[in-house]
Amino acid sequence: MSFLVVGYGQIGRELVRQLTERGDRVTVVKRSGMPQRRGAEVIQGDVQDALSELGSEGFDGVFNCMHAPYSARAWRDALIPREKQLLEWAGDVPVVFPESVYAWGAGAQELKEGEPVEPASPLGEVRAQLLRNREAYGGKTVSVVAADLIGPTASLAGAVFHQLVFDRVMKGRHPLGMGDVRAPRSITYIPDLVRGMMYAVENAHDLPSVVHAPAAGPVSQVELARAFARVASKPEPSGVFQIPWTVMKVTGLFSQTFRELHNQKYLWDSPQVLHAGVLADLPVTSLDAALVGCVSGREGASL
């Protein structure tokens, strides 16, 4: 089969790996170069320019993994017009998206498949608009909702637990957390998300427009830090230091990222559980196995 992958970040990289390893032909659109990979053709440049060189009829599916800096304005300015152009270009070819829980606002505390979208922050409003645009599109789209991401391809900038917990534990520093560090939280392992997206593109016409990615049982930030330390053979942390929201708010005066994180505090002061839906029968990686993958990915990246 032949697929178009837009974006080569923490999700796109794993997607290209899994697709090419099973023998699919992949065309990747990304802004900068990437290492050569058998079965993958790379078109370097912005997707708005790259689509003019391609015809959608040659693809069995499209995966839209493009992203933008962690800012509602950046998401609105960069993602909305590019997604609209991509959907118009795709025509009858199914398009699959990874999606966050932001569009569901406080409903994400116990999110079940099919719940109405009710954003509670600027970032959530942009995600809700993207979902509405996909629904209004005449073709078939599937948005695969994920919780906080971890995985061998995760980046410090794009995966909060890698930045606040894993990286610090590996360096012998105390892990950090936000909100209620003992509240249960769902975690999505990127390879599991990708397998869900691959299933979605192949079964798009039999699925609802929004599905939940496979995820293991929820854990608290404290439990996650201790499990990671055990798997990484590091000293067990005594706990997780909670970053005060007042610090986040003040830092947000100078940092767009911290300002947006402060706007999302409703997601951290309570549990955030992503309940299984129609993809519940897909394989899910256990927490320990996922953490082993995170350690291996970190070690591989440092070689």
Q: How does this model look, in words?
A:
Strands 3-2-1-4-5-7-11 form a 7-stranded parallel beta sheet, sandwiched between helices. A two-stranded parallel ribbon has the order 6-13. A two-stranded parallel ribbon has the order 8-10. Helix 8 (about 245-250) packs antiparallel against helix 9. The radius of gyration is 19 Å and the shape is globular. The protein has a domain at about 1-150 and about 185-215: Rossmann fold. It contains 10 helices and 13 strands. The chain has helices at about 10-20, 45-50, 70-90, 120-135, 160-170, 190-200, 220-230, 245-250, 255-265, 285-300, and strands at about 1-5, 25-30, 40-45, 60-65, 95-100, 110, 140-145, 150, 175-180, 185-190, 210, 240-245, 275. The protein is of the alpha/beta class and about 300 residues long. It starts with a strand and ends with a helix.
Layout of SSEs?
Blueprint: E1 2-6, H1 10-21, E2 25-30, E3 40-44, H2 47-50, E4 61-64, H3 72-90, E5 95-99, E6 110-111, H4 122-136, E7 141-145, E8 148-150, H5 160-170, E9 176-178, E10 187-189, H6 190-202, E11 210-212, H7 221-231, E12 241-243, H8 245-251, H9 256-263, E13 273-274, H10 287-302
Parallel strand pairs: 1-2, 1-4, 2-3, 4-5, 5-7, 6-13, 7-11, 8-10, 9-12
Helix pairs in contact: 1-6, 3-4, 5-7, 8-9
Pfam families: Epimerase (PF01370)
Domain NAD-dependent epimerase/dehydratase: 4-205
Protein name: NAD dependent epimerase/dehydratase family protein
